[in-house]
Amino acid sequence: MNTEQFIQTLSADSQMEQRVDRSLVIALVVSGLITGGLFLALFGIRPDIGTAITRPDVLLKQVFPWVVALAGLGIVVRLSRPGAKAGAWIWPLLAVPVAILLAIGQEMMLISPDLWARTAMGHSAMICLSTIPLLALPIAAVCFWVLRDGAATRPTLCGAFAGLMSGGAAAAMYAFFCTDDSPMFFGIWYVAGIGIVTLAGAVAGTKFLKW
Asked: What's phi and psi for 162, nearest 5 deg?
């Protein structure tokens, strides 16, 4: 390969990476809006969202899935390139469990221990645990379709973060409907729902994102 061919190859690789980056962003936005829009059109937004979101716990419940989704997207974009690492996008993800644990700790100090289990279960634990993965499924499917044009050298890890991104987007949509606002509730069931999608993404990445 001469110098001119080498430059052309690098240019083609760079253009492919840019296409995958743009396609991933578009895939997340479009699939998330369609999926979330259909879900909320069918089941509705909680009627008190305007006042409820002014409370710190509710605000955290609404915000942290968006942080997971956007940071996950940033990491997936990087991991879709050969040899790339997560980079600075990992720091917002690490801040999420810290914020949730602090909120849980504060809540546990404010309510009686005999109410902990009931508060953690809320009114819709199983609905939450099943709905988040179901909402994430079409989002993840579109993202994996885009990622097949990438060049991930760690397909399992890339797939896991694609699942994390999709689960975060799904949880963000579900949070507009959910009225269980306890940090113990969303710290367990939202995180578990996102975790299921992350694990499924890792398995799918191993199978579908190999070169």
From this structure: -65, -40
Q: Which amino acid is at 192?
A: A
Q: How far apart are CA 189 and CA 124, in angstroms?
A: 9
Indicate the range of 13-27, 63-77, 184-198 predicted with least confidence.
13-27
Nearest alpha carbon to residue 92 among 109, 75, 113: 75
Q: What percent of the residues of the chain are helix, what percent strand, and what percent coil, each to the nearest 5?
A: 80, 0, 20
Q: Closest Cα partner for 162 from 30, 72, 96, 66? A: 72
Instruction: Write a three-state SS string for 4-43.
Output: HHHHHHHHHHHHHHHHHHHHHHHHHHHHHHHHHHHHHHHH
Rounded CA separation 185/191 (Å): 9
Please give the Cα distance from 173 to 166 (Å, whole number): 11
**Whole-model pTM?**
0.87
